[in-house]
Amino acid sequence: LLDYNIIFDKLGNYKAGALCIPNNNNKSYDKYAVGFSYDMYEKSYAIDVSLSGCREMKKKLISYDCKCEIIYK
User: Fold this and answer.
1) HSE on the CB side for 25, CA within 13 Å?
2) Per-residue model confidence as pLDDT tens digits over 24-60
3) What is the distance between the alpha carbons of residues 29 and 14, in angstroms, rounded to a whole number?
4) Angle at the Cα of 69 (from 68 to 73), degrees rounded to 5?
5) What Cα–Cα distance (Å) separates residue 3 from each residue in 9, 36, 70?
6) DSSP assigned state of 43
């Protein structure tokens, strides 16, 4: 998120972050799918929004096998 000048710790309450974790951890990739949410009305909704964003970015950007997982909530 820092590449987009977004400081996650300053995004308010009920936030979550998701990253598409590659199934092959031995490789380095130049693109990653991420999703995040902030200032949501409840924690479960923040998680759902961040996972959804990660999955959408994965469809458009990622050619390797990975799974979107919550990395921060």
Assistant:
1) 1
2) 766 666 677 888 888 888 899 999 999 999 999 999 9
3) 30
4) 135
5) 15, 14, 19
6) H
Cα–Cα dist 33/37, whole Å:
14
User: Which pLDDT tens digit goes with each residue over 6-18?
Assistant: 776 777 788 898 9
Residue pair 15/36 in contact (Cβ under 8 Å)? The answer is yes
Question: How many C-beta neighbours within 10 Å does residue 51 have?
Answer: 18
Helix, coil or strand: residue 13: coil
Tokens describing residue 58: 């994965």
Residues 6+ apart with CB under 8 A from 40: 13, 14, 15, 16, 46, 49
Determine the Cα–Cα distance for residues 12 and 70; give it in Å rounded to an integer. 17
What is the rounded distance in angstroms from the CA atom of residue 29 to the CA atom of residue 3? 16
Which residues are 67's β-sheet partners? 21
Q: How many CB atoms lie within 10 A of CB 54?
A: 26
